Amino acid sequence: MSNQSGRYKPKLERFRRTGKRSHLLYYLPVFNAVSGERMGVLADLSLGGLLIVGHQRQAIGEQLRVRIEGEKGSRLAGEIGLTVDAEVRWSAQDVNPSYFATGMRFLNIDEQMQQHIEEILHRLGHGGD
């Protein structure tokens, strides 16, 4: 579902993010850190969570350890790396019906991890904005 500006808007208002989201210039791969399965690509990132777009719907309430990394062979390879626990808050068919968008909330984020996420946002060219 998209609003008049064409941006994706989840149907479930009760799961609305409260932190500022950064739209990314790079769509980094996101993996299930336990199984190694590629879940999709990172579409948005904030200090509170992330939005991924992938081929499968994720189960709401599921808690996962996810890993975000720069594509091998890209200038971001080795520069971007984050492994974090997250909870699926919503998952719905994307604007492109071949994909699903999934909003996830970070769990157990300490100050050091929050600084690491801020550094990733800065490296991606957003400075945390």
Would you give an account of this structure?
There is one protein chain. This protein is mainly beta and 129 residues long. The chain is 10% helix and 38% strand. The chain has one helix at residues 111-123, and strands at 21-23, 29-32, 38-46, 49-54, 63-69, 81-93, 100-106. The protein has a 6-stranded antiparallel β-barrel with strand order 2-3-4-7-6-5. Mean pLDDT is 79; it is low at 12-17.
Helices and strands, in order, run as: EEEEEEEH
Low-confidence stretches: 12-17
Mean pLDDT: 79
Number of separate helices? 1
- Major beta-sheet overview: 6 strands, antiparallel, barrel
How are the secondary structure elements laid out?
Elements: E1 21-23, E2 29-32, E3 38-46, E4 49-54, E5 63-69, E6 81-93, E7 100-106, H1 111-123
Antiparallel strand pairs: 1-3, 2-3, 2-5, 3-4, 4-7, 5-6, 6-7
